[in-house]
Amino acid sequence: MPARVADRFYLFASGFLVCQPLVITAARDAFLTKRVGDVLLPMGVVALSTLAGSTNFPDLYAWAETANLSPIATTLIGLALMAGPVGKCAQFPLHLWLDEAMEAPGPASVLRNSLVVSCGAYLLIKMQPILTMSRL
Fold this sequence. Notes:
The protein is an all-alpha fold. It has helices spanning 2-18, 21-52, 57-66, 71-88, 96-101, 107-126, 128-131.
């Protein structure tokens, strides 16, 4: 008997969410935007750690002052390192899905999303000495 109640609730909840087109487009946009960050951030970190030999911020700061890389390499690494937090943490210009996803925000989702956006901004600020190597 309890399994039938759970099945009915699931069917009701999933049918309710499917009937809201704004929620469907927001979920799709969020999924695609976050996949951009999922792919590009590890690519940038692997390229940077291979070139610098470390992933510690003080070591990266010292390396960034003395590194002599081609402009194309620094631009690609900078774009990859910026696209990660921008895509994953809903920073400008990839923030458009956030207001659609928050159709009826609860206190927990507002707190979570504000922390995620703040962490993305913190990561961009923390990587500033590395990003200044790029000519963008």
